[in-house]
Every structure is written in structure tokens, then in C-alpha cells.
Structure prediction request, 49 residues.
Amino acid sequence: MRELSAEARLHLYARSVSRRSGTGYTAALYSAFALIAAIVFGTLSVHPF
Prediction:
């Protein structure tokens, strides 16, 4: 019974870690899109010629 408890704790820990890394991945994805949009709109507003 003790091994089952340790296995359940490990499973819950893995789920919590994957949930946290999922939100970090989403934030990184949105910030990358925001950076690309800022570069594109910034270069469109500059008239080199």
C-alpha cells in the first residue's frame, strides 16, 4: 500500500509540473508573437527612402 501511495504522489507531482510548464509555454508563445508583431509594425512605420 505504501508503494501505491508513493506512485500516486509521483503522478500528482508530474501532473502539477506539466500544468505549470504548460502555462509557461503559452506565455512564451504569446510573448514571441508580441515581439514579432512589434518588430513588423516598427519596421513598417520607418520610411528608409
